[in-house]
Every structure is written in C-alpha cells, then in structure tokens.
Amino acid sequence: MKKKRFILIGIFLVVIALFYVNHNKPIKIAILNDFEKERSEYTTSTFLSAQIAQEEINEHGGINNRKIELMIKDTDFNDLDSIFKSLKSEKVEVIISAANSQQLIKLEPYLEKYKITCIAVNSTSVTFSNKKDYIWRVLPDDSIEIKALFDYLKRNNIGNNFAIIYDTNNLEYKDSVEGQILNLGGKILWKQALKGEAAKFSPNNIDLIKKCDLVLLLAYGKDSAFIIQNMKRKNIDKECFGLSWAADYNLIYYGGKAVEGFTFFSPKDISNRYYNYNNLIENLKKYDKNNSIISIVTYEALYLISKAYENKNKYNISFQEGLMKEKNLKLHNNTLQFNYFGDCINGEFIFKVKEGKFIKLEDN
C-alpha cells in the first residue's frame, strides 16, 4: 500500500514538474524573409523592429509569464519545406513575414500543410482577401489603397489616365493594383517594368507619359527615389504617386529635392505627428535607423501575437481563435481593425514629401 502511495505521489510530482516546465518555456516566434533583399529595400529590418517589441513585452512579464523567443529564418523562398519542418519540430505556431505578395503565394501551401499562421506585414494583393486561411495581414489590401487614391484624384481634379512603373519582383502586386484601377474606371495608357538597377532607369516613351494624368510607382522607397530623379532629368514633370511600399525614409534619403511633392498612401501614420510610435523610433535611433512602414507593422504584429496568445490561454482556445478575438485591437493610440478572414480593413493616410519630411495631408 505504501509502495503504491509513493508511486502515485511520484507520478503527481512529475506531472506538476512537466506542467511547470511547459508553462515556463519561451514562446517561439519565427521571423521569415529574404533578409538580404529586405536590407536593400527598406531603411530598417523586420527583425530589428520585432526585437524591440520583444524586449518591451518581455520586460513587462512576457505572455502570461512566458518570455518571447525570436527565431530568424532567412530564405530565398525556394527551401520552404525544410524550414517549415524545422519550425514544426520547434513547436512554432506563428511566423511574421515581410514576404511580398508574389512570395506569399509560395508560402501559402506550407502554412496550410503545417498548420502555422503567418502574420504578413508586406502583402496587399487582393488575391488573399476574404479567404479563410492561415494568413493574417496587417496592411489593407489594394482595393482600399486604390479607392483612397481615386478619391484623392477626384477631390483634386486630377484625371485617371495612369502611367505605371512597376517592380518585376512582385508581379502579383502589380496585377492586383492594375485590376483595382480598371475596376474603378481608370485607364492605363503606359506602363514599364523596372529592370535592373533603379538608378539606371530610363522611360521608354516620354511622349506617352506626358499624355497621362499621373505616374504611379509600384516600387520601394529607394527605387522610387531613383525613378523620380531620372524622370526629372528627362524633363518629365508629372505628379508622381506611390502606395504603402513607398512609406520608407530611403525615399527621402536617396531622393533629395527630386522627391519634393511626391504623394503616397499609407495605413500607418509615419509622420509621427501624434507620437504613436515614440518608443519604437527612439529604439531604432540607437541602431542608427529611421522608422518605416515595415518597422511599424512588424512591431505591431508582435503585439498582436502577444494578445492572441493571452486569449488562447485565457479561454483555452487555439491560436487562430485567439487572433479572431482581436478584430479591433487598440494599440499605441491606434486601432487595428480586421474582418472575419484576418484582412486588415483600416483606412489610409495621405502624405506628401515636404522639406525632407513626410507631411500628413489627411486621414481617409
């Protein structure tokens, strides 16, 4: 009888010990992207922004007293099966990725296969909209951005005959934007692919560009800066517009006076007028980095994940169900809004470059 009692006590203590160990292990979150390409495109990195949020959350007790541990997965998006096998063995439930829309298409089947959620911080193609999947996007899709652009054009008596310059590394995004322009009655009179270095870009039909009402740049801030400089050298004086890709200080750093007056749309207030991201900005300065849309959305993504895990533990539900409880997440004086499918439905801010700064014109 005593022997049985000791065995039961032993089993009980082992169960308690395992429970304690499992509930004090760090929560692993992977940051997945092609980091070499990311460094060339943005003024800062997703990992650095995630690290700042990680430190803040961990300093305040982590997630239910469990620390966050970040894992870096550098990929060219051609070795995904081995990466996801590794993530699954590490019990990773969620990744943050700055994959563009073209790359997210490659990611999608592996997210489904391994049941891992992706917080996508750089994809806006309507291809992923209103789908029940493992993708949760923190940027509004192109239908919202292009609608905001058309509203601005109408208010300012600008026509809708478009010239488009696009990056060939993200044709899915280009097709999505073009589709929304045509849906709203716009016309695309001229378009040209950005091939090779943006610093060497040369428009192939100046006369046709001059017949357009505006030039829409589907390129990162740095490339947009070089494109605008080269158009000005060719005496092309058309108003240039950009979407959320352009919301990066590389635009100003590389563009100089040439980008004065450039208008772009972003769901994040990168002007810092209301000091929503002070802590992020101050921490980025320690690394000699400026704020950008990619740093803001990655920073917010880690807080979104933290809230989802809190919900998971509180209500004894899955991580995905935990996310669904955060369809109106109040964060740093902002509200992140999502629909049933995990698509961000926030509106857009409109900015102009003025005297080397991003000046917010209006909230849309």
UniProtKB/TrEMBL annotation:
Keyword vocabulary terms for this entry: Signal
Query: Which SUPFAM superfamilies does the UniProt entry name for this protein?
Result: Periplasmic binding protein-like I
Source domain of life: Bacteria
Q: Does the keyword Signal apply?
A: yes
Does the keyword section mention Signal?
yes
Q: Where is the Leucine-binding protein domain?
A: 26-308
The record's listing under PANTHER family reads: LEUCINE-SPECIFIC-BINDING PROTEIN, PERIPLASMIC BINDING PROTEIN OF ABC TRANSPORTER FOR NATURAL AMINO ACIDS
Family membership, please give it: Belongs to the leucine-binding protein family.
What is this protein's name? Answer: ABC transporter substrate-binding protein
Q: Which organism is it from?
A: Clostridium ganghwense
